[in-house]
Amino acid sequence: MTEAPDVVDIKDDAGYRVAMATLNKQSRPPVVLRLLMSAFEAYRQSRRIGWSRPWNKYGINTFQSFRLAFPADDNLIDLARAVLDSECADIPEDADSFIQDLLSGDDLMGFVFVHEFEEGSKRFEGATLSFGRKTQRRYRDRLDLIVEAPVEGAGIGEMSRLRVFVDPYRGVKPPLWQTSVNAAKSASVKTLYEELGKLSHAWAGDTDKLWDHWTSRYIDYFGPRRWPLGNTPFYVETSATPSAFTQD
């Protein structure tokens, strides 16, 4: 197969496959791999391929990623349901039906992403509880619950907001439903936030839970913590473990 050129502009599926093969070989200089990965991710993002969504990419620095296993991690499903029940009473029927079908399905899979987020002049730190399906690897359904606290100087404030994205795969259409909630006084959101903080520590050195690819070295929204916060509930990301690139 022909390798991707040093200057890349992936325009179709054939170019996408060539880029994937070239990335897997890891035979190009780091600067070229970074350019190629940028084009690769842009192509995926514009078509919502795999686990790719804009709210996990732009303004984000993800410093920990964990893969969930069910039924061992079913408590996170319960916590997600509690948050949705208490904070999303106005959710449309079609979005609610999608959520119920997703969370009760035998093909459920999930991740936890711990991140820093810049939104204009504001900074946040938090975590994403992300659900999808094992089937249809290239065209994933998604449900994301994002809990965050504001960064205040060298510290972090109280958990303050919840963002929810209900996004069954619909091509390039926007999410079926999304919301942002002031969750400072929400008991259910606080419980989820605290649990994700505990798991950030408990799973930090667990190779069965850590989800790392060598490709993270070439993706702008993965990296070590940038803001050293003295009172953060989250663990600092460990160095990535190289692995085969099986992006979908």
Compact overview of the structure:
The chain has five helices and seven strands; from the N terminus they run ααβααββββββα.
Give an account of the 3D structure:
The protein has five helices and seven strands; from the N terminus they run H-H-E-H-H-E-E-E-E-E-E-H. The chain has 248 residues and is of the alpha+beta class. The chain has two domains: 1-47, no CATH class; 54-202, no CATH class. Strands 1, 2, 3, 4, 5, 6 and 7 form a seven-stranded antiparallel β-sheet that branches. Helix 1 (13-25) packs antiparallel against helix 2 (30-47) and helix 3 packs antiparallel against helix 5. The chain is globular, with a radius of gyration of 18 Å.
Topology:
Layout (H helix, E strand, L loop, with lengths): L12 H13 L4 H18 L12 E8 L6 H14 L5 H12 L3 E12 L2 E12 L8 E11 L2 E2 L4 E7 L9 E6 L4 H16 L46
Antiparallel strand pairs: 1-2, 2-3, 3-4, 4-5, 4-6, 6-7
Helix pairs in contact: 1-2, 3-5
